[in-house]
Design brief:
Elements: H1 14-24, H2 29-33, E1 39-42, E2 57-72, E3 77-85, E4 90-96, H3 100-106, E5 112-122, E6 125-129, E7 132-135, H4 142-150, E8 152-155, H5 164-180, H6 192-197, H7 203-211, H8 216-247, H9 260-266, H10 274-287, E9 294-299, H11 305-318, E10 322-326, H12 330-344, E11 361-365, H13 371-383, E12 386-391, E13 405-411, H14 418-425, E14 433-438, H15 444-450, E15 455-459, E16 469-475, H16 480-495, E17 499-503, H17 519-523, H18 531-540, E18 548-551, H19 557-568, E19 574-577, E20 590-595, H20 603-610, E21 620-626, H21 633-643, H22 647-656, H23 660-663, H24 666-669, H25 684-700, H26 708-717, H27 720-728
Parallel strand pairs: 4-6, 9-14, 9-15, 10-12, 10-13, 11-12, 13-14, 16-21, 17-19, 17-20, 18-19, 20-21
Antiparallel strand pairs: 1-8, 2-3, 2-5, 3-4, 5-6, 5-7
Helix pairs in contact: 7-8, 8-25, 8-26, 10-11, 15-25
Length: 729
Amino acid sequence: MPALEEPLQKIVGGNTAKVLAEHLDLHTVGDLLHHYPRRYAERGELTRLADLPLDEHVTVVAQVADARLLKFNRGKGQRLEVTLTDGSGRLQLVFFGRGAFAHEKKLLPGRRGMFAGKVGVFNRKLQLAHPEYKLLDQDSDRSTVEKFASELLPLYPACRQISSWTIEQSIDTVLTSMEATGWDGLTDPLPPSIRADRSLITLPEAFRKVHRPRTKGDIAEARARLKWDEAFVLQVALARRRFADTQLPAVPRRPREDGLLKAFEAKLPFTLTEGQRQVSKEIFADLATEHPMHRLLQGEVGSGKTLVALRAMLTVVDAGGQAAMLAPTEVLAQQHHRSIVEMLGELAEGGLLGGAEHGTKVVLLTGSMGAAARRQALLDLVTGEAGIVIGTHALIEDKVRFHDLGLVVVDEQHRFGVEQRDALRSKGKQPPHLLVMTATPIPRTVAMTVFGDLETSVLDQLPAGRSPIASHVVPAADKPHFLARTWERVREEVEAGHQAYVVCPRIGDEEEPAARKTPEDEAEKRPPLAVLEIAEQLTGGPLKGLRVEPLHGRMQPEAKDDVMRRFAAGEVDALIATTVIEVGVNVPNATVMVIMDADRFGVSQLHQLRGRVGRGSAPGLCLLVTEMPEASQARARLTAVAGTLDGFELSRIDLEQRREGDVLGQAQSGVRSSLRMLAVIDDEEVIAEAREEATAIVSADPELSQLPALRTALDALLDKTREQYLDKG
């Protein structure tokens, strides 16, 4: 068995191995060696106690200031109180029961040690109850202590069930075992030429220096090497996926001179932006090749991605094929269907009385459609009568058959699992072309890492006529009159002939909030504000007399569609909704967006919601209502959103606040991220160079037959589930 695949229970002992597996998901030698220290303390360094976070499990390096053994319950019980200090603050330890006396003998004033536990509060003092600890200078003479104090102390991501130093001891056992065998069986994923060109240390050296550093230079060398491993292996996997795509056959789809596309362009009441023309040119070039297109189209909210996608779909229809657009929700599928039919006019009525001679049918397919409408839609697809279909996951069902599927457009791709996208692509006679769209701007490094198997097109230019959007934070708790002014602004916009959205995190029947939970949610016990409750309060209070309607995902599809249709027609003044209106909803007359409990939404989600206003000639207004205090992280996040309309800048902020694993599509891959050292924002240069090297290597040797160590490392580092995720693209 390769060295890194060795089960931990063979080396570190059954009980420790069990805890590592159950609570930290570490099962093999490789898992443990890749569990890197989160930071390093010098043993002589006293960690600042002034900055301890409440209710979090921490490890501190500090010194005992005093210890008192107290009796209570008429002498039957005893409690040891120990005070730690580090010069910046004080922390109390408390031990109850018979063991308190034994701890008193060890925790003498002046002793320095590592202490781990969950930070609590008692009598307004920070406290660790029954912490685990390890004394650092016990039974050492002066020279030993000085040497000991100068060494770097790795502090590992730990949990209540296992401490940082127990993890350190386990890693020490593994390193000793590996060194005794001369690292037998260890495969190095980096080809020697790459290592030599960049002066990177060997893999055994990197493991030694990251876990047992003597100097800060050791840590820097280890991190440089281990970042390259992660970036390179991932980029090789993506490069192999791209290469495999170039080997697949596809039907070239070229536009006709007298086809649907030309007829559609002739009736457009506006000219395309330069960005739309350029991106369309890239897509048309891909569609004309004999290999499937795999392109990511990302752009700002309102940049006209749907129009670009429609031009691609019409090109495929012109070439005798069919196009399918996959949307994440029924509301969005219906919205896309309605807007595409409106844009095409008589061109969307192929075969119908009054329809254009060379038009096509545009059909909708969702799970809630009536039996007759569904039967007709399925018939139109299998006969080829319908050139374009827009639908939800209902498109993926086995009974859905196409005459000749040539293009799949996936909207808001992060809402879909890989299997769903793959199931739709498998419905073509040959692999169809694929266009993936997202309105969440993605930094270049993330695009290279997450969507590395796709070519990327960016639409960052807004069409003429889009109005500016002013954004403001409304601190409802600090300044309640600001909230009253919010509803006055909504009334003013309605009186001026415009409309408003009010967004809430949940519906109101005790289901889990739709928005992501933040640490502030846990601290604040008040449940998130709900659509049904806010709608009732507004209709009976500040918005009394206005036409107010609720909209949420649990309504019947017909009811949802009816509300959206009436809102689009101007028959509803204010829509009180969940994030069901986050993407795709286009009502140019809506000018104000009020987001309640805005701190409960992510940065990108807030940007998406804001993009629903300012879509017409009147300026837009977005008000972010929060009860979070001014000094909180949540308020800082809202201030950042209010401060810029640049989606790419906001995506960087969003990414910096999240773990890398979230970014790498864990929800889609079903496994934890393989990136432990690489930071996709900070390590752009490494990622770009690794992509270049990986592409060259895979082009020369797609099967990696000349690099068996790389092939082995690819299998080990990207486990089977994640490989499948990458393979399916």
